[in-house]
Amino acid sequence: MIGVVAHPARRGTRQVVERIRATSSSVATTSAEVVVTYTTPAHPGGEQATRLLDAGAQRLIVVGGDGTVAQCAHALTEWIDEHQPAEPPRLTPIPVGTANLFWRNLVATFPPGPVCVDVAHVTLEPNGLTTTSLVAVGAGNSVRAIQRTPAQRHWWSYIATGVNLGTWKGSPWTQEVGNVAGVPHRLRIFDTSLDSGTLCHTSFAPTGVADWVVAGAWALGANVSPAAVRVRVGQSFDLDAPHGIHVDGEVYTKVQRARVRVRPRALPVLIPA
Question: Where's the DAGKc domain (predicted)?
Answer without folding.
Answer: 1-106
